[in-house]
Specification:
heterodimer, A: alpha+beta, Sufe protein. Chain: A, 3-stranded antiparallel sheet, 6 helices, 3 strands, 14% strand, globular, B: alpha/beta, Aspartate Aminotransferase, domain 2, Aspartate Aminotransferase, domain 1, 2 domains, 7-stranded mixed sheet, 4-stranded antiparallel sheet
Chain lengths: 139, 419
């Protein structure tokens, strides 16, 4: 499946919710199935610090594809991270670099990406793109 | 003249919270489909009509650069700006109007004091005293200047209830301490600190005393002469006035010894390439074109506050504080920082077991409740209480008991979703 198709799937999943509480309940559920970063990988170097919540992100490059594991101390952030990983994990660096995260806005979570230095989520997306850039020049 | 005859300046005492509320248009809106319950007043407050109307009036009509020209618009703008200085002088009971300096806020005021005072009062081996509960704006400027001058930054600890360890004061306060800078009320703990006691002791060792009144000016009646501090600083935007405004009240004796911080127009007496002389206070510390529209509106804001029945406001704040404290402590797993005491204002920073502050804040936002989550710009204080972040609800004069009840019920609902 293409990244765009997965994003579309996610947008459709969320469109059945009319109430905000239901969306957040769903995100909380999704957060429980996040591919968790190993505790041993929860180091300073993998910590993306924000004032709102802490986010850990680990990337592994295998046979041309990037795989991500992550964690956060905030559940809703975990839910959104699990969506991001669903979209970006197991992809080539080129695919990641050429896509955007507009689906987050489409499911109505734009405020979670407000560009404050406090935003661990926004920093994580930047970090994913950074990894993609890094590995796009590796063989 | 339109503004001086404005109703708000000769208001009868506003005696009911419902009536006070009607002056704040921002409170009438809905967010996420729910009526706004704005409980982030410690971050910034909403503005009454008299403030926004003056700002609009000046932006659209009464606008001319102050202190400079002789034309009509300049004269009227100057009158409003200097009238605001008189209003603030009255509001804080400063000795003279020249001791009231307009700045762009508390942070700018503290930076001004740090740079200017340290250049004459701080040398290698000297010390500056702050507390463990200070806001970054009352920590970082001192770190910077202590670094520059080789001085030491001393930190007065707090106890687990959030109270200053005044019992340890003698250990921290000796004659090498040249500057003491402390918050009147902590923006996290919400406790009115015993500043008079500390100011008295600080004076005995010859230290200059500075009080960060960003929260203090909002919740207590300020009398700088009674407090006895050398400097009292605060922001306009938490005091129902526009952003980008602030005040530094200082005693003449100290101000006159201080070199200017910013140089430029209006703060000079004469300029030549050989020698420049400076203006007298307050203008010595008001370089460039100030936010004269904002400051004029600050003057109106303090008059508005003076029109509120003080007893009604005090009783109301106490009623809300007691209610919220009582209800919060009944929720399982809630820890409040800053003990409830007679000196606590209606400001509650807390954590909830197994529920992250940002998750709770996000959910409550969808219910129309505006709270603050994070470090409140007090990272050392967070570490002291061994938490990464907290949740804060801070009530202003226009918040009602109904809103407090909705805050509690929404909080319980959010917690249930997360636990």
């Amino acid at each position: 499946m293409l990244i765009k198709e997965i994003e579309q799937q996610i947008v459709e999943e969320f469109s059945i919710f009319t109430d905000w509480m239901d969306k957040y309940e769903y995100l909380i559920e999704l957060g429980k199935s996040l591919p968790l970063i190993k505790d041993s990988d929860k180091q300073e170097s993998n910590l993306i610090k924000g004032c709102q919540s802490r986010v850990w992100l680990n990337a592994e490059f295998k046979e041309g594809y990037l795989f991500f594991t992550a964690d956060s101390d905030a559940i809703i952030t975990k839910g959104i991270i699990s969506l991001l990983i669903r979209v970006f994990s197991g992809r080539t660096p080129q695919e990641i670099l050429s896509s955007d995260v507009s689906f987050i806005e489409q499911i109505g979570l734009k405020e979670n990406l407000s560009p404050t230095r406090a935003n661990g989520l926004l920093s994580m997306i930047k970090q994913i793109k950074y990894f993609a850039l890094l590995y796009s020049v590796k063989k | 003249m339109l503004i001086l005859q404005h109703n708000y300046l000769i208001m009868e005492k506003l005696k009911s919270i419902e009536k006070i509320r009607t002056h704040f248009s921002a409170l009438e809106q809905s967010v996420n489909g729910k009526p706004l319950i704005y409980l982030d007043n410690a971050a910034t407050a909403q503005k009454p009509y008299c403030v926004s109307e003056l700002v609009n009036e000046m932006n659209t009509r009464i606008n001319g650069n102050i202190h400079r020209a002789v034309h009509e618009l300049s004269a009227r703008s100057t009158e409003l700006y200097e009238g605001a200085r008189d209003a603030v002088k009255h509001f804080v009971n400063a000795r003279e109007r020249e001791e009231v300096i307009f700045t762009s806020g508390t942070t700018a005021s503290i930076n001004l004091l740090a740079y200017s005072l340290s250049s004459i009062s701080l040398k290698k081996g000297d010390a500056v005293l702050i507390s463990e509960a200070e806001h970054h704006s009352n920590i970082v400027p001192w770190q910077i200047v202590c670094d520059i001058h080789g001085a030491q930054l001393r930190v007065l600890p707090i106890d687990d209830n959030g109270l200053w360890r005044v019992d340890l004061l003698d250990r921290f306060l000796d004659s090498s301490v040249k500057i003491v800078s402390l918050a009147h009320i902590s923006n996290v703990l919400g406790i009115i600190n015993p500043i008079k006691e500390v100011i008295t002791k600080a004076k005995l060792v010859g230290a200059i005393t500075i009080i960060d009144g960003a929260q203090g000016v909002v919740h207590t009646k300020i009398d700088v002469q009674d407090l006895g501090c050398d400097f009292y600083v605060f922001s306009g935007h938490k005091l129902y006035a526009p952003t980008g405004t602030g005040v530094l009240v200082g005693r003449r004796e100290v101000l006159e010894k201080m070199p200017p911080w910013m140089g430029g127009g209006d703060m000079v007496e004469s300029v030549s390439f050989q020698k420049t002389t400076y203006a007298q206070i307050p203008l010595k510390f008001e370089a460039g074109t100030p936010n004269f529209i904002g400051a004029s509106a600050l003057g109106v804001a303090v008059k508005f506050i003076e029109s509120l029945d003080a007893e009604v406001v005090e009783n109301h704040e106490r009623e809300i504080k007691d209610f919220v404290f009582d209800q919060l402590t009944k929720i399982d797993g809630v820890r409040i920082y800053g003990d409830n005491s007679i000196n606590k204002i209606p400001l509650f920073s807390f954590t909830v077991d197994k529920a992250h502050p940002s998750d709770i804040a996000m959910i409550m936002d969808k219910m129309g409740v505006a709270l603050r989550s994070g470090m409140m710009c007090c990272e050392p204080l967070m570490k002291r209480f061994q938490t990464e972040s907290m949740l804060r609800a801070s009530f202003a004069v226009y918040n009602t008991l109904d809103e407090a009840q909705l805050f509690i019920s929404s909080l319980k609902r959010a917690i249930n979703m997360l636990r």
